[in-house]
Amino acid sequence: MMIFGITTRYVWFAVPMTGFFIGKYLDDQETLRMTNFRDKSALYAGRVKEGEPPSWP
């Protein structure tokens, strides 16, 4: 059965892929947010000196 050109085969593909891409987007946004805090933790000896690369990407 087809409604507006959408078949069940398309739905079985599109729904999991949509969930994957939404999850990837949210994970990328969280990683981007956390890069603001890298190397500034008191637990791990504070800040990196000027000119040194960050401890994690």
Helix/sheet category: mainly alpha
**In percent, how much strand structure appears in the residues?**
under 5%
Average predicted confidence as pLDDT: 81
Rounded to an integer, what's the Rg over CA atoms? 21 Å
Largest sheet: none
Q: Could you give the distance between the termini?
A: 48 Å
Fraction of residues in helix: 40-55%
Counting DSSP H or I runs of 4 or more residues, the number of helices is 1
Number of strands: 0
Which spans have pLDDT < 50 for at least 5 consecutive residues?
A: none
Shape: rod-shaped
Give the topology string: H per helix, E per strand: H
Question: Any overview of this molecule?
Answer:
With 57 residues, the chain is an all-alpha fold. It has a domain at 9-35. It has one helix at 8-34. It is rod-shaped. The N and C termini lie far apart (48 Å). The mean pLDDT is 81.
Detail the topology: elements first, then pairings.
Elements (H helix, E strand, L loop, with lengths): L7 H27 L23
Overview in brief:
47% of the residues lie in helices and 0% in strands. With 57 residues, it is mostly helical.
Question: What tags apply to this protein structure?
Answer:
57 residues; mainly alpha; 1 helix; 47% helix; rod-shaped; NDUB1
